[in-house]
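From the thread on structure requests for the teaching lab: each student submitted one protein with a one-line request. Submission from student K.M.:

"Model Nitroreductase family protein from Chryseobacterium luquanense, tokens only."
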Amino acid sequence: MELIKNLKWRYAVKKYSEKKISENKVNQIVEAINLTASSCGIQPYRLFVITNPEVRKRLGEGSFNAQIHASSHLLVFAGFNEITSDYIRDYVEMMERQRNLEKGTLDVLKDTLIDYFSVQTPGQNVIWSDKQAYIGLGTALIAAAELKVDATPMEGFDPKLFDEVLGLSEKGLHASVIMSLGYRDAANDYLVAVPKARLPVDEFFTRIK
Ligand SMILES: Cc1cc2nc3c(=O)[nH]c(=O)nc-3n(C[C@H](O)[C@H](O)[C@H](O)COP(=O)(O)O)c2cc1C
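Reply posted by the TA:
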């Protein structure tokens, strides 16, 4: 399986070279993220792809992660603050159009989702949308590895600063998790030759027959 080879190749890069990723590769990674499964299928997060150096410098202030500004691209996975009935309505109507269904065919799904989310607290909404964003992060890591693009998933950032710089709360969003993309600086990244540390598979998983 090629995927296992790619997963062994990848690591969380600490130091990137100056080399930029082609737009074609970035677009493929974005498409893979958009194709990621989400609970209820309603994609409750949005993705920002940031290259602007000034914006990235500001985003990296106070963080130990130089990769926020020193990499080719920065991805920000931004979860919804709230799952509104309007959003569910619009999304389910889009599903009907994409599947060539008559308007109203998916009313049961729509009403079930609206009922379900209407009793959730804002805190529950945030946790739920963050979980979905992290699934997107997983896809992004795999997609990047398949393209031999390096990546670093990161939780070490200041969500308040991201909110301020990117104007997330006025969009009903918050920064859930971020990821840099680029190419490893093989001569200067101390992790490049460090073997992967993982549990023996037998210790990691339990088979129940
Ligand atoms: C959700 C998440 C958050 C992480 N946050 C950071 C981070 O802020 N900075 C960093 O350098 N690495 C970060 N990492 C990378 C992990 O430390 C790394 O994936 C782990 O040590 C396993 O190593 P490997 O990915 O190189 O195989 C993060 C990884 C994940 C999945």
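TA comment: The beta strands are 45-50, 73-80, 150-154, 173-182. The pocket of flavin mononucleotide is lined by residues 11-12, 14, 65, 152-156, 177, 196 (CB under 6 Å).
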